[in-house]
């Protein structure tokens, strides 16, 4: 395994990136990435209501705040959002910007998960970037694993 | 000048959309569009299916990407390669936008007043814009039945404020289209005016967007031309400072476009010539009857710095703007 990372983040990590590099000593047929994080949803609805209220005050014009606050419930539940993007030793290989808290991703010459660009798996330093768009729960744990595959057939 | 119907903000399952590029292009063709920009969040991998989707549907697909950053979403269209969104810093978007333009793209603010994080992460534009010339456009109409939505009215007013400050920047619509679901709500179209009809459509469309040669509508195509000293100037162009004092303005309302794909307004409509000085001229239209109608005005150009046409009418019981042109500028 090239990477196996488990880490906890908090709301203070919102709007930041964590970058993890690994090195391929030689080209491979494929690369597999498993990324997951939990919890996804802020279950504490009172805490969520407070965050929503702050957002409305920050982003909504004063004259529209009151009706927005009356409809604040529509924004429940609030969710954590962490996205994955990948760079090989030469170029960017795409990003997976979606809400799924568990993502099994793959990359190879002929196939790639949606969001990623298929192509050779060259030797050199690769980077997985985790982008913390929002962490709303008090704590959120993520796990990132990366493997190299000898043959494309390994991931179907 | 050929005007093509464009949808400039779309997503597929390569980001958080729930449609393939082919499904998206088919949906666009069914709605009478000629062209879409694929603007998935932070990836361009969906373009691998571009050629197949174009040949199956006849829709032109402009490559693009929505920079989905922590401080705002920036739609970028027309660039041929990835430009890294992860370097974006709240203190300025200028260098990122410059890089997009260096690679042939146009850069615009997406839905600048949609509620932001953590409800919709990065959706509200918080970037400082040091120089407005760094950006090509503002997406002032987002979503369906866009002109009646408060966030869009705020964006439209924001754009008008920039014009009044002397900034020359285009305004567009974008559905932010994530899936093929039928909607009864009016759909916005950004028409881009192709100057060179022999050039590749995608490149020419981006050139038009950068030049501000754009009209936004939920119905007819409204175009604007101003003559000064015998020379005609079109949308996005600038009339030089030495002028005779009068502009001869012609507005055409083409109700034949996308026939049957939009709901005609109920009752009378109003055509308004708007500028930095406020309403410059008005004309009542008895009805839009599936034809091309032209209207002429002669207006003084003193103190005028920009001029646009707006069409107002009643849609679904709401008095609303139906269409607007981008501005003709006066030096």
Question: What is the topology?
Answer:
The complex is a heterodimer of chains A (156) and B (331).
Chain A: E1 3-9, E2 16-24, E3 30-38, H1 45-59, H2 62-70, E4 81-87, E5 92-96, E6 102-108, E7 124-134, E8 140-149
Antiparallel strand pairs in A: 1-8, 2-7, 3-6, 3-8, 4-5, 4-7
Helix pairs in contact in A: 1-2
Chain B: E1 2-7, H1 21-30, E2 35-38, H2 50-57, E3 60-68, E4 73-77, H3 94-102, E5 106-109, E6 137-142, H4 150-164, E7 170-174, E8 189-194, H5 201-210, E9 214-217, E10 221-228, E11 231-234, E12 238-239, E13 246-254, E14 266-275, E15 278-285, E16 292-300, E17 306-315, E18 318-325, E19 328-330
Parallel strand pairs in B: 1-2, 2-3, 5-6, 6-7, 12-19
Antiparallel strand pairs in B: 1-8, 3-4, 4-5, 8-9, 9-18, 10-11, 10-13, 13-16, 14-15, 14-17, 17-18, 17-19
The helix/strand class of chain A is: alpha+beta
Strand order of the largest sheet of chain A: 1-8-3-6
CATH architecture of the largest domain in chain B: Alpha-Beta Barrel
Strand content of chain A: 35-45%
Counting copies of identical and different chains, the oligomeric state is heterodimer
Structure description:
The complex is a heterodimer of chains A (about 160) and B (about 325). In chain A, helix 1 (about 45-60) packs antiparallel against helix 2. Chain A is of the alpha+beta class and about 160 residues long. Chain A has two domains: about 5-40 and about 80-150, Jelly Rolls (Sandwich); about 45-75. Chain A has a four-stranded antiparallel β-sheet, with no helix packed on it. In chain A, strands 2-7-4-5 form a four-stranded antiparallel β-sheet, with no helix packed on it. Chain A has helices at about 45-60, 60-70, and strands spanning about 5-10, 15-25, 30-40, 80-85, 90-95, 100-110, 125-135, 140-150. Chain A is elongated. By secondary structure, chain B is of the alpha+beta class. Chain B folds into two domains: about 1-215, TIM Barrel; about 220-330, Sandwich (Immunoglobulin-like). In chain B, about 15% of the residues lie in helices and about 35% in strands. In chain B, the strands form two sheets. Chain B has a 15-stranded mixed β-sheet that branches. A four-stranded antiparallel β-sheet of chain B has the order 11-10-13-16, with no helix packed on it. In chain B, helix 2 (about 50-55) links the parallel strand 2 and strand 3 (about 60-70). In chain B, helix 1 packs parallel to helix 2 (about 50-55). Chain B is globular and about 50 Å long. The two termini of chain B are about 25 Å apart. The mean pLDDT of chain B is about 95. At the A-B interface, helix 1, strand 4, strand 5 and strand 7 of A face loops of B.
